[in-house]
Amino acid sequence: MPIPPAAWTSPDIGALFVVTGASGTGKTTLVKAALAAIPSIRWSVSATTRPPRKGEVDGKDYHFVSRERFAEQVVDGGMLECAEVYGNRYGTPRAPVDAALAEGDSILLEIDLQGARQVKAAAPHAVLVFVLPPSIDALEQRLRGRATDSAEVITRRVDEARLQLQGVGEFDYLVVNDVLDHAHDRFQAVLLAELQRRERRPSLVSGFGG
Questions:
Q1: H-run or E-run covering 173
Q2: In total, how many domains does the chain have?
Q3: Cα 155 from Cα 86, distance rounded (Å)
Q4: Could you tell me the CATH number of the domain that includes residue 53?
């Protein structure tokens, strides 16, 4: 029985990737490049109780829901993770993630340490990736090099980074962003390797008679 061409590129069962890293580590840059480079990985659209801003589209930028509906989803287990920020609630709806994984697409979440822990508790199969700076000193230099924050804000961000880094041992993969081009290669290698796992590709196993 011939194996369909799609089987070579996309798994039968997708992966849920959770990416965490302190501010200034370059995780957002790595995530955007990976999403552009690997078609079978999708960005997760979060839900929020805040009202839409001008130009935002429901279902594309966010899923805009009432506080009551958000609370119901949390109680029913419909959120993989959630948090409250400046009086508004944000979270990752479980249903679209589960549907994407079942179709062979993968989902990528970029969240903080607390959110990553919530996702791992709700979805133990999630693959956790931590993006690290070469050192705390290098991170502080990057933040100062941006010239966008005050010294007080930079100090706070460095302190927050130290707290985030305490959770490094809970993650499956660690990617050090020392040289950006090298970090892109490492990060995408992690994602692609996970998508080649045998358990994600039963059609290949059966197609070859395994």
A1: strand 173-176
A2: 1
A3: 21
A4: 3.40.50.300
Instruction: Give me the long-range contacts of 188-193 (CB less than 8 A, separation at least 24).
Output: 188/33, 188/34, 188/37, 188/38, 190/129, 191/15, 191/17, 191/34, 191/38, 191/41, 191/106, 191/108, 192/38
Q: What is the mean pLDDT of each run of 10 residues along the chain (210 residues)?
A: 50 95 90 93 94 94 95 96 94 95 94 95 97 90 79 87 91 96 96 94 85
**In terms of Cα–Cα distance, which of 114, 62, 126 is closest to 93?**
62
**Do the beta carbons of residue 176 and residue 134 sit within 8 Å?**
yes
Q: Structural domain of residue 37, as residue ranges?
A: 13-199
| Predicted TM-score (pTM) of this structure | 0.88
Domain-located, residue 105:
yes
Per the domain annotation, does 86 fall within a domain? yes
Quick check: is 8 in a domain?
A: no
Asked if residue 95 belongs to a domain, the reply is: yes
Task: For strands 88-93 and 79-85, give the pairing.
Answer: antiparallel
Asked whether 18 and 31 are in contact (CB, 8 A), the reply is no
Residue type, 206: S
Tokens 């985030």, located at residue = 164
Residues 6+ apart with CB under 8 A from 106: 11, 14, 15, 16, 17, 40, 41, 42, 100, 191, 195
The CB density around residue 40, as the number of other CB atoms within 10 Å, is: 18
Q: Is 48 helix (H, G, I), strand (E, B) or coil?
A: strand
Q: Are 190 and 173 in contact (CB under 8 A)?
A: yes
